[in-house]
Structures are given as structure tokens and as C-alpha cells.
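Notes from hallway chat w/ T.B., transcribed later so I don't forget. T.B. wanted the structure written out for a chain they're using in a teaching module, and asked if we could keep both sequence and C-alpha cells in one place. Agreed to drop them here.
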Amino acid sequence: MIYTVKGDGYTAVCSDRGGELISLTSENGVEYIWNGDAKYWSGQSPHLFPVVCSPLNGRVTYDGREYLMPKHGFVRGAQFRAVELAPDFVTFENSWSNETLKHFPYKYKLRITHRIIPYGFTTDYSVSGDDGMTFCLGGHPGFMCPHPRGGTFEDYQIRFHNADGAVISLTKNGYMDPSVPRVTSRLENGVLPMKYHYFDNDAMIIENLPVKKLDLVSSADGHGIRFSFEGFEALGIWTPEKKCAPFVCLEPWRGLPADVNESGDAKDKKYAVTLNKGDVFKASYTVRII
């Protein structure tokens, strides 16, 4: 089912299939969210839970037992239900079932709220569950790049509000691998140019950002979006390799792709969250048009 929320001259379209925000348009009809053209990538803004990216050999160990786990987890494309609806927001919920227990041995509740704010929207996550539940969480929103106003993908750049000490890594065969050199040199004075060849080895993964805020903008006119994320520790930046696709994903992550040297135990994963009884983990990302 599709839900439409509005406010401050913007309209967002959200789907209970995956709990996604699949469109954001201004009052003059300009679209900012990737349209899901399967020629490039049929996704739009999936959510990643209880893993981020590829688990090692497709498996994760929880409490001493190994479970099969698909890439990015199992809520991407899953059915959510709308539990709250107002003119300017919708809250979706997905929770455990006998089927999820085959992959993840915890009873969980994941709530995602999409809310219109001045000049954009915010997506809020709330995760609760069993005492000792360990998980990773991520967003994967795709944005039109170039923007319909014109230009090319490589006219755009990412301007970090503060990137001092940040590091950029690449994966090998989908995994973190210490043998792969870091590419932090691509950052010049906190600016990352959008170059298609930068993505020939999949996503760029940025850690240690002191300020989790960036602008994805045209170098010609400064138009674009401001993206900020709280409660997350890393950022993936991705567009499909060697497709010259007209979009880019900005992916806030609490977790990373599996490391080739990791144990496979969920509690050993970098940035993973473990809940104590009664805990609720919260994180969010915000998009503003600039």
C-alpha cells in the first residue's frame, strides 16, 4: 500500500513494501529520489537489518549458532505495516516471525518513521528486542544525480562539513580486506568529486567523520541536497559500477561489510549494537534541499 505525506511545499510517497520512502517532490514537481529504473538498479531506498552489506560466506553466528543471512539482511523488500499516519508523517513497523527466527534468533521490533520537514524529510529508526540482541542497521537511499535541472553526474561533488581524520576504504569481493589500500587521497579539503571510475570496485566506505553532515551538490550552481545522519558510525557511497547510472546512494551504516579476517560472530562485528533488557536503539538521517 502507498501512503502520501505532505508539508512545506514537499510531497513524499512511502510504501509499506520495505517501509521505504520512494519519492520526494517539490511543489513544482521536481523529483529528488531515484526512480528505481531496473536498467541501472531497481532499488530506491531500502533498509538494512540485521546486517549491513555482505555477511562472511552468507552466514552470521548468534549465541554460538550459525545462521544463513542474505546480503543486507531480510527486511529489504519485506512487508511492513503502517502503525501511525498523519498528514506529514507515516510510521511503519516490521517485527519478528517464525520465518525471521530461521535467520535471526531474536524477537525484534523495527519502526521506521518518514516525516516531512521544512525543505525535506527525516527518516527515524527505532529498534527494540530481546535482551542481548545484536544487530547492524543501515539506510540505502538513492538520489537523482544529476538532478533534473541539468548537468552530468561528474559535475557533482560531496562537500563534507568536516572530514578531518576521515578514512575511505574499498572492499574486495564484497568484504573488508586489509590488503586493499585505502583511498583517502580522493578527499581534497573535505571535497569528494563524483567520478564514475571511483565506483569500479563497488562502494566507498567512509569512517571517522567528526561531523556527520555533507552536501551533495552541483559544482556549477551549488544546488543539491544536504544529508545528515545521527546514531550511525559509517557512510557508504555507491552507484552501480560501470553503468554510468544517473543516481548515487548515500548510506548511513551502523555496521560494515564482513571483514575477511572476522570470526563471523555478530558481537565481533564493528559498530554492531547489542541491546540490554528494555533498551531501544534510535538513529536517523535527514535530507534537506539546498
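Follow-up for T.B.: The chain has a mean pLDDT of 96. Might be a good example for the class.
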